[in-house]
Every structure is written in C-alpha cells, then in structure tokens.
Amino acid sequence: MEREVQRVRQAFLSGRSRPLRFRLQQLEALRRMVQEREKDILAAICSDLCKSEFNAYSQEVISVLGEIDFMLENLPEWVTAKPVKKNLLTMLDEAYLQPQPLGVVLIIGAWNYPFLLAIQPLIGAIAAGNAVIIKPSELSENTATILAKLLPQYLDQPTELFCSNSCDDPIKTGEMADSE
C-alpha cells in the first residue's frame, strides 16, 4: 500500500490537479458518471443494504449531485485570492490569502451510506485540488466494486481505490487513472 500512496503523492506533486479548469472538468466528469451509471450505482447500493431504489436515490444520489452542482457553482470564487487587512509591517505589501491544495487525502467509506460517504468527500478533495485514496467499506462489497470499476473510467484524477475483506489486508482493485 505504501507504494500506491507514494504514486498518488507523486501525481499530486506534479501539479496536475491544481488548476481550476482541471478541477471543474473532474467534477463534471464525476457528475456525468453518476448520471450515466445511476442504475448500476443504485443496484449496488440496493443489493448491499436492501434499500429500495427510491430510498437509495433520495438519500445518496441526489445528495451527491447537489454537492457537485454546489461546488461547480462556487469553486471559481473560492479559489481566487482574497485581500487581507494590512498592518504596519505589511502596509506597503500586497497581502492576500491564496487557497492551496495540501496533498493526498484518505477517504474511508462507511457501510451505512457507502456511495454518499465515499463520493461526497471525494467531491471536496477534487474541488480543493488534492489527490485521493479511497478505502470503501468492506461491508458494502457491491458498492465498492462499482466504485472500483467506474472511478478510473470517468476520472483523470490521481486516485487510488482499495477494497478489502478485512481492515488489515487492503487489496488494490482500481488502477490510478494517472499513469506514470
């Protein structure tokens, strides 16, 4: 697992995930994935949790789509530099706060909302310009499998996805979309 973390970290250090345009493209690709593969996602959630399709859609898919739309609408404003108050030491300087991505994010999914609690933090991490490692819940096998299949197909993002049968033994199921 350490080798995969290093690969994701190197992908982040390349700077590819930092530009605003790249982040917006990735969020749009994620939205496209959810919309195009909605039936597959719902089937996985329903088989894992024995939820009705209506409940799975209203509790997980709608929330994810709303979060993506919110990020797409607000992200351009959030990434711009904001002027800050000047003091005696900085009055001749240009002082501002510039949001910057911090690196690699680990997302550990939960079994009770397996899609929502894996994808919602992914949306924030992509919007922030970070690279991501996702560890879906081993108790929601079907959702973990569909995520492992779909995320590399839709995202051109430094992302690793791990699924396991136990917390001690992660097994890599998805390849990082960014080849070295």
From TrEMBL:
Its EC number is 1.2.1.3, 1.2.1.94. It catalyses: 22-oxodocosanoate + NAD(+) + H2O = docosanedioate + NADH + 2 H(+); dodecanoate + NADH + 2 H(+) = dodecanal + NAD(+) + H2O; decanal + NAD(+) + H2O = decanoate + NADH + 2 H(+); tetradecanal + NAD(+) + H2O = tetradecanoate + NADH + 2 H(+). Gene3D superfamilies: Aldehyde Dehydrogenase, Chain A, domain 1 (3.40.605.10). It comes from the Eukaryota. It is an enzyme of class 1 (oxidoreductase). Keywords: Endoplasmic reticulum, Fatty acid metabolism, Lipid metabolism, Membrane, Microsome, NAD, Oxidoreductase, Transmembrane, Transmembrane helix. It is a single-pass membrane protein. The keyword RNA-binding does not apply. It holds the Pfam family Aldedh. Residues 3-153 form the Aldehyde dehydrogenase domain. SUPFAM superfamilies: ALDH-like. Coiled coil: none annotated. The keyword ATP-binding does not apply. One of its GO terms (molecular function) is farnesal dehydrogenase (NAD+) activity. GO terms for cellular component: endoplasmic reticulum membrane. One of its GO terms (biological process) is fatty acid metabolic process. It is found in: Endoplasmic reticulum membrane; Microsome membrane. Its main location: endoplasmic reticulum. InterPro entries: Ald_DH/histidinol_DH, Ald_DH_N, Aldehyde_DH_dom, Aldehyde_DH_NAD(P). Belongs to the aldehyde dehydrogenase family. PANTHER family: ALDEHYDE DEHYDROGENASE, ALDEHYDE DEHYDROGENASE FAMILY 3 MEMBER A2. This is Aldehyde dehydrogenase family 3 member A2. It comes from Cebus imitator (Panamanian white-faced capuchin). The lineage of its organism: Eukaryota, Metazoa, Chordata, Craniata, Vertebrata.
